[in-house]
Design a protein that fits this description.
globular, mainly alpha, about 220 residues, single chain
Amino acid sequence: MARSSAVLCSALLALAAVTYSSWVLEFVLPTGLSPTESFLSELEGYGHPFRYVFSAADKIAGLSTLAAAVVGWSAYAHHRSRIMSAGWLALGVFGLWTIADATSPVGCLVRPGSHCPTAYHGMFAQFHSVHALTSTVAVNAIFVAMFAMTLVAPRLQWFALRRVGLAILVVISLATAWMLIADNLPHDFALGWAQRVQVGGMSLWLLTFAYAVSRGRHFVIES
């Protein structure tokens, strides 16, 4: 992988990590949503005052990730394995479906003080829309990418991804298990925070991946 390709791929991954973290703005913007009782997708829901800010950030994150996957897949053309190819493909799928996620926001949800002509009720009301499909595909895709890239990390000297990235992957997996288990229990069990840990972990993993690519082994592509 040429040094220039590594720099470009790393920069795109870093941009994706930062923009995918736009949800932290909810702590400084008057969103009117509780981090404990709301899903991040509600920040982009119809009628939300800042939906275009969060939606635009997610679209940039998706485009950046998709571009990073294309650059990485092309640059490793002479050296990639099937596992690495699966990782780049999964990363590209994550980027593509993150864009789809941002273009198919949830409908208006009933909250105290809200005025929704047609609305869904409850914590999991968002799952009545196509947004459920786009989110599910995106999350599963990045899990595949994380596992695949962790496996090939030693050969490419992606030491940060092998060590720090693996720890982040464990945390994300635990947060996901928290969400899946709590979904079948009678109370919410702070599901909003579970998702924020999950998505925050994904951003940290992308940032770790960006650093690993910039510091790892750079192949020279044969002519």
